[in-house]
Amino acid sequence: MISRVAIVVLMALLGWVYKAIQPPPPMICGSPNGPPVTSPRIQLRDGRFLAYKEWGVPKENARYKLILCHAFDATKDFPLPVSQELVEELGIYMVSYDRAGYGESDPNSKRSVKSEALDVEELADNLHLGSKFYVMGASMGGYTAWGCLKYIPHRLAGVALVVPVVNYWWSSFPRELAKEAMKTVVPSERRTLLVAHYAPSLLYAWMTQKWFASAAAASRDPGIFSESDLKVLHRLLSSGSFIENKSRQQGIYESIHRDLRVMFGNWEFDPMNITNPFPQNEGSVHLWQGYHDRLVPVQLQRFLSEKLPWIRYHEVPDGGHMFMFADGFTDRIVKMLLIGEETSAM
């Protein structure tokens, strides 16, 4: 009798665990129960739809064409804070897009670093951006930029990686260096990275449980922001501008959870083994990092830049993770990428 009760309890427990780790199906934009489609979209070869938004000068008048890869828990609707004066002076056309599962772009259950890069290439082709274009990846959007450098280098005119998130398990990182760097990360964020890497099938359960704090970035824990970040945030909030964040409207799993799984999972390649895509200096790759960044340890970016001497490394001494939103800084990043010059600091 006791053994039968034990079996029933065990089966019930297993059923509860199985249910806890299974994410609900996404609410696809345009489906009967999903959010409405309000943005232009292209259809990819695999049938998925990718939503985009165009900025800057008209495409047909542009001298430079720049594809923007947004950060974690963001969408295409957050504008790049570049001045209109610089946009018009250089003739910059920009297109931002919702990465798979975010905003109004269909989820991709097979999302990978490679699929992200191929999405960029298809977007460029569908919008007729030409044989070469520029790419900028910010924060978590950095892995898309790394994917472009690996899988479509022949399509690139230049790349900017701005505070790109790193994977602590890239094979070229010395283990002790990676461990020490991870210790500097907020504990709740560190635990989430470990789950995403070692037990990705449990990530949904971990991110939705109520007993322990999970991802600090997803919960917007103030501890992830440096003093300079908080000043930037205060200025942005006091500006009075408001943009509705639709990043999670199709479900948290296919947006932010899938992002974590791809970023901190086992990559198909190590970025530190990528070869220079511009051996004749016909283009350039830039990596921008804030010294006080509490999400991306500066020591790992320094090591990476030393391994890839063809990357132009820019370290901002008083910058945190959000330094590009400080007055004038995005103009410096964009101008350096497009013409190899910086505007004066503001």
From TrEMBL:
One Pfam family matching this protein: Abhydrolase_6
Signal peptide: 1-20
InterPro entries registered for this protein in UniProt: AB_hydrolase_1 (IPR000073), AB_hydrolase_fold (IPR029058)
Key word Signal present: yes
Highest taxon, organism lineage: Eukaryota
Alphabetically ordered keywords of this record: Signal
Record flagged with keyword ATP-binding: no
Record-annotated AB hydrolase-1 domain positions: 81-325
Cross-referenced PANTHER family: ALPHA_BETA FOLD FAMILY PROTEIN, PUTATIVE, EXPRESSED-RELATED, HYDROLASE, ALPHA/BETA FOLD FAMILY PROTEIN, EXPRESSED-RELATED
Protein name: Alpha/beta-Hydrolases superfamily protein
